């Protein structure tokens, strides 16, 4: 019986850690994207227009997160949509940085 109790406690702990990591992941991804954009501007890989475009995407994601948090809880569907938008924005940054256009 104590083995079942212990395993149930471990499962509960794993789920609580997973949700905490999910919340920090959104913030960490935003930081990473900001750094990638800043580096792309500094190196000349992103033109002014490209940088503005991807920064606008990041602003839209921040607004989406703010709206999701407005009612006090972020639902699974909202979290899934935010993560999908972050993935799309990340791919867009990559494409813009590697499209053979530069600021110089």
Strand-residue proportion: under 5%
Q: Shape, please?
A: elongated
* Rg over CA atoms: 19 Å
Task: Kindly report how far apart the N and C termini lie.
Answer: 69 Å
Mean pLDDT: 86
Helix/strand structural class: mainly alpha
Number of strands: 0
The secondary-structure element order is HHH
pLDDT < 50 stretches: none
Approximately how much helix is present in the residues?
A: over 70%
- What profile does the largest beta sheet have? none
What is the multimeric organization of the chains shown?
single chain
Give the count of helical stretches.
3
Characterise the protein shown here.
This protein is mostly helical and 104 residues long. It has three helices and no strands. Helix 2 runs antiparallel to helix 3 (76-97). The longest helix is centred in the N-terminal third of the chain and has 42 residues, at 2-43. It is elongated.
Task: Identify the notable features of this structure and list them briefly.
single chain, about 100 residues, mainly alpha, 3 helices, about 0% strand
Please provide a brief summary of the model.
With 104 residues, the chain is an all-alpha fold.
SSE layout and pairing:
Blueprint: H1 2-43, H2 48-69, H3 76-97
């Amino acid at each position: 019986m104590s083995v079942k109790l212990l395993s149930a406690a471990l499962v509960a702990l794993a789920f609580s850690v997973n949700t905490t990591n999910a919340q920090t992941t959104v913030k960490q991804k935003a930081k990473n994207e900001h750094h990638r954009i800043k580096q792309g501007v500094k190196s000349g890989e992103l033109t002014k227009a490209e940088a503005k475009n991807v920064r606008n995407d990041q602003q839209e994601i921040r607004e989406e997160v703010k709206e999701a948090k407005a009612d006090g809880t972020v639902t699974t569907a909202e979290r899934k949509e935010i993560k999908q938008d972050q993935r799309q924005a990340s791919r867009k940054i990559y494409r813009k940085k590697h499209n053979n256009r530069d600021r110089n």
